[in-house]
Write a structure and sequence with these properties.
Elements: E1 7-12, H1 18-25, E2 31-37, H2 41-51, E3 54-55, H3 58-63, E4 69-72, H4 79-88, E5 92-95, H5 103-116, E6 120-122, H6 130-140, E7 147-155, H7 175-192, E8 195-203, E9 208-210, E10 220-222, E11 228-235, E12 240-246, E13 257-261, E14 265-268, E15 279-281, E16 288-290, H8 304-315, H9 325-344, E17 348-349
Parallel strand pairs: 1-2, 1-4, 2-3, 4-5, 5-6, 7-12
Antiparallel strand pairs: 7-13, 8-11, 8-17, 9-10, 11-12, 13-14, 14-15, 15-16
Length: 370
């Protein structure tokens, strides 16, 4: 790396989501994709040719002196292992969600990073997009007054009709909560601050599902995890949000997220996207009004979290990255709390209490985060 204003990144895992990361990285001047690796080297070579980097083995990528930051896009079951290996090699890490399957493994990642004075970030970073940052500004500016409640819904019939490899969605570490829950929980923490405790119930509709996607048509998929979660999240701010995530629902008419305050209500966009729409209801308007987006990054800006982390690396402590390992650990603890509360029949109090991520400033030039 000859440019001191850039961080060299290596992408490990060149599957479905990687293309969005490669493309997103080109937006941010602080990122330079140096190398990529995959268990299937031919897949890595194809991505390298498409996006102008070098395909390497994982070991060679981790030994590459031009790679300062590893983007870990492997399957959830090996997130912790790959992140730990990258940290041992002296690399900063930005991981796809979740940070790990188990809390103890996630803690090991954070502990090793702290020991080596390295930074860890984690998806989702969609809360840094235009839609969520617009919602954050409306909340911070008082348009809702004091937020007292809300609702969050992510409900579908599951991915077996369209995903080319749906089996892992029904294994430990996946399911609707661990696959999609991070988007909703992280978005809520961005808007309201950390969660205090959770009371929930879980269930599942089927012990075995049948894939109907073309690649795996007819394959039976054992269901190892709950596929319907419903609970109440109490935040340290005092807000209480009812949340349901499910792979057992044919159809519904709920908004992804709504917040209810003493001065108005807010309809929040799908937290798995970066854009809008954002709608506000106030006693003055007495109707829902769509709001202009106040911030940039409305398109599919995967890598924005890695860019924010790279900005923090170059700032030498003056910039705190937003999609942090601490935030991801809190989201993981919250997801486990749904199952623990259901099993124990009681509230589960969260031990972690990360800082609420800082909002993005207004007036950003696209390609920069400060």
């Amino acid at each position: 790396m000859n440019n001191p204003s850039q961080i060299g990144i290596g992408i490990i895992g060149c599957g479905n989501i990687s293309g969005a990361y490669f493309k997103g990285a080109k937006t941010f001047e602080v990122l330079k994709v140096v190398a990529c690796a995959d268990i299937n080297h031919e897949v890595a070579e194809a991505k390298a040719e498409e996006f102008g980097c070098v395909a390497q083995s994982v070991d060679d990528l981790l030994a590459n002196p031009n790679v300062q930051l590893v983007i870990n896009l492997t399957i959830p079951a090996v997130h912790a292992e790959v992140s730990l290996n990258a940290l041992e090699a002296g690399k900063h890490v930005h991981c796809e969600k979740p940070l790990a399957v188990h809390l103890k493994d996630a803690k090991s990642v954070l502990d090793l990073a702290a020991k080596k004075n390295l930074l860890v970030g984690c998806a989702p970073d969609t809360f840094m997009g235009a839609g969520m940052q617009t919602c954050r500004k409306l909340v911070d500016d008082g348009w809702l007054g004091r937020v007292i409640g809300g609702s969050a819904f992510m409900m579908s019939r599951g991915p077996e009709s369209w995903h080319p490899n749906p089996a892992f969605f029904y294994e430990v570490g996946a399911g609707p909560m661990f696959d999609m829950g991070p988007y909703y929980i992280t978005a809520l923490v961005n808007l309201l601050g950390p969660i205090k405790r959770i009371c929930a119930n879980t269930t599942k509709a089927f012990k075995v599902r049948t894939a109907t996607c073309e690649a795996k048509f007819g394959l039976e998929l054992p269901v190892e995890i709950p596929t319907h979660y419903s609970g109440s999240l109490e935040f340290h701010s005092g807000a209480v949000v009812n949340m349901t995530v499910s792979f057992d629902v044919y159809a519904h008419q709920h908004k992804p997220i709504e917040l209810y305050g003493t001065a108005g209500s807010l309809a929040v966009p799908d937290p798995n996207t970066f854009g809008g729409p954002v709608s506000l209801w106030t006693p003055t308007t007495k109707e829902w009004k769509e709001q202009a987006l106040s911030h940039p990054y409305a398109s599919n800006m995967r890598s924005i979290g890695a860019a924010d982390l790279a900005t923090a690396i170059l700032s030498e402590g003056k910039h705190v990255h937003r999609s942090s390992g601490a935030l991801a650990y809190h989201a993981l603890e919250a997801m486990h709390a749904f199952e623990a509360s259901s099993v124990n029949g009681a509230h589960t109090v969260l031990e972690s209490k990360p800082d609420q991520p800082a909002p993005l400033p207004l007036g950003l030039i696209e390609g920069r985060l400060k």
